[in-house]
From TrEMBL:
Superkingdom, natural source: Bacteria
Protein name: Protease-4
Keyword Protease: yes
Entry's family note: Belongs to the peptidase S49 family.
NCBIfam families associated with the record: SppA_67K, SppA_dom
Length: 586
């Protein structure tokens, strides 16, 4: 029986292996064919901008890898902006169609794409936008277009920004599972959800000011492109003046109500072709393959861009996690590369491990001693994200960047009440006075709490010192804008935490200017394994993605995000310098 079982298993294994090889062969053939076709963008074409996958600042795959992009779940912001820049000077591309997006990106990323589209229009090319429905962020992007259209039974969401914070005090009391929290900072939002059932006035004030600053930035951009005053746009938001296509036209948010075939008629007219069938579309994914081969910045001297994106954890790190392993290796490579004359650190992180943040800060400081370091902030560069940025020669942020949150805290779960309710009694034995420091099943000792509090205070003081040195501010000045307070990019410039408003390209130009470079090429760090490589290394990767898809379908997107947050919480070790909570701004 064992022989038969082993024989059948070997046959099945061989068939499975041959199946994988066959699929790889088909993929390779299709990619070879695609490589021949990807450059054949037809004359008189429209670039179709559909952004329906999550957008990360950087995917980190090798552009010339034929398998790059396979099994990738996200689109790279750097590739999207580069494609638009290439299309601007591509005579075959006559315009862009922003078509039926449900953009999964932060406000700063959306603003960066919007700015690149404004630059595209400066070449005298058209941009049209169409959607069956516009969520608020979708409309913000679409409003850059020359003309904005909507389906006759479509919906436009334009009502202002909001966010929601969950509070767990009652849940802790009812479940017997309590979070012991030790912090520094008068803005108690970092721990407030565990200690209270409602929002404090301090927290409400900072969130309100943050949301108003982000909203004002969006309204300013929309006002400029739609020729509607900012006060009128706020009235439209307050009265839901765009809630139907008819109201949206009267309010000036939309130019016309069309079915999709009628919208294609508009594109036909713009292209000067006879019928809709004569429209030549180039999808973004197709065009990215072509544009990735077009180098726009050239020169023997280089500027390195090091992308740091995701929460900060102690360890190696990866495409969506900042660890000292991969990031420091990238910074050291950029520092020791003689052709690299300046480094741009792109930060998109809510923070995380204070220890890891300081380890990365050290490498940034060492690099700054030998060549310029400029920071570009993405959607969020807060707490630990700001920590690693603070020592740069110059810091840029988008107006809609969320930054600051200079504060530290520690959270420790305690199951004492639950253990008592279910009949668990824990007894400890130790050799020395402090051998038994903490148990999940015992009330926290005052000596242990004092020990952690001391560590929190030391870390906070170190954080203040790093910012004070990097920003040329006194400790008192830093402390006055710290205390865990979050700021928009616009506010951060006003309080001295950021030097200028600008995007990644602005940061690159500043780095070149400081280094005295007129011509230069770009090198991007770090390089990650492609999704296909990760899939081949771990065939379970596909099943994990499949399981996540099933779970998300069963419990819904919001519940799935809470589950992911809980999973993330399990990985947080030590003192944290991170955003107080995940801000989902709607």
């Amino acid at each position: 029986m064992n022989f038969l079982r082993n024989f059948l298993a070997s046959i099945l294994g061989s068939l499975f292996a041959f199946g994988i090889l066959f699929v790889m062969f088909l993929i390779f053939i299709s990619l070879v064919g695609a490589s021949e076709d990807e450059a054949s963008v037809k004359k008189n074409s429209v670039l179709e901008l559909q952004l329906q996958r999550p957008i990360s600042d950087y995917t980190g795959t090798n552009e010339v890898d034929p398998f790059a992009g396979i099994f990738e779940q996200s689109q790279g912001l750097d590739e999207i902006i580069h494609a638009i820049e290439v299309a601007k000077n591509d005579e075959r591309i006559k315009g862009i169609s922003i078509n039926n997006n449900f953009i999964i990106a932060g406000l700063a990323q959306t603003q960066a794409i919007r700015k690149s589209l404004e630059d595209f229009k400066s070449a005298g090319k058209f941009i049209y936008a169409y959607a069956d429905f516009y969520m608020q962020r979708d409309y913000y992007l679409a409003s850059v277009a020359d003309s904005v259209f909507i389906n006759p039974v479509g919906v436009l969401d334009f009502k202002g920004l909001s966010t929601e914070v969950l509070y767990y005090k009652d849940l802790q009391e009812k479940s017997g599972i309590k979070m012991e929290v030790i912090r520094h900072g008068k803005y108690k939002s970092a721990v407030e959800p565990y200690l209270e059932n409602s929002m404090s006035e301090d927290n409400r004030t900072q969130l309100s000011e943050l949301l108003h600053s982000l909203w004002n930035s969006m309204v300013t951009d929309i006002s400029r492109n739609r020729s509607i005053t900012e006060s009128d746009l706020n009235i439209i938001a307050d009265t839901l003046g765009g809630r139907t296509p008819e109201y949206a036209i009267k309010s000036g948010l939309i130019d016309d109500i069309l079915f999709y075939d009628e919208y294609e008629g508009k594109l036909s007219n713009a292209l000067g072709v006879t019928t809709n069938k004569d429209i030549n579309y180039s999808t973004l994914d197709e065009y990215v393959k072509y544009s990735n081969k077009k180098i726009l910045k050239k020169g023997d001297d280089k500027i390195a861009i090091v992308f740091a994106q995701g929460e900060i954890f102690y360890g190696e790190g990866g495409p969506d996690i900042i660890g000292q392993g991969i990031i420091n290796e990238a910074i050291i490579k950029a520092r020791e590369d003689k052709k690299v004359k300046a480094v741009v650190l792109r930060v998109n992180s809510p923070g995380g491990s204070a220890l890891t943040s300081d380890i990365i800060w050290r490498e940034v400081a060492l690099t700054k001693e030998v060549k310029p370091v400029v920071v570009s902030m993405g959607n969020v560069a807060a707490s630990g994200g700001y920590y690693i940025a603070a020592g740069a020669d110059k810091i840029f942020a988008e107006p809609t960047t969320i930054t600051g949150s200079i504060g530290v805290f520690g959270t420790i779960p305690n199951l004492t009440e639950l253990a008592g309710d279910i009949g668990i009694n824990a007894e400890q034995v130790g050799t020395n006075a402090n051998a038994i420091d903490y148990s999940l099943f015992e009330t926290m000792k005052e000596s242990f709490k004092n020990q952690v509090q001391e560590s929190i205070e030391d870390t906070y003081q170190t954080f203040l010192e790093r910012v004070s040195q990097g920003r040329n501010l006194t400790m008192a000045q830093v402390d006055s804008v710290a205390q865990g307070r979050v700021w928009s990019g616009t506010e951060a410039v006003e309080v001295g935490l950021v030097d200028e408003l600008g995007n990644l390209d602005d940061a690159i130009k500043a780095a070149a200017e400081i280094a005295g470079l007129e011509t230069y090429g770009i090198r991007k760090f770090p390089k990650y394994k492609s999704g296909f490589e990760r899939f081949m290394e771990d065939l379970e990767g596909a099943s994990v993605q499949f399981k996540e898809t099933l779970i998300k379908k069963e419990i819904g997107d919001e519940a799935f995000m809470i589950l992911k947050e809980l999973q993330s919480f399990k990985e947080r070790k030590g003192i944290q310098a991170r955003m107080p909570f995940a801000l989902d701004i709607k």
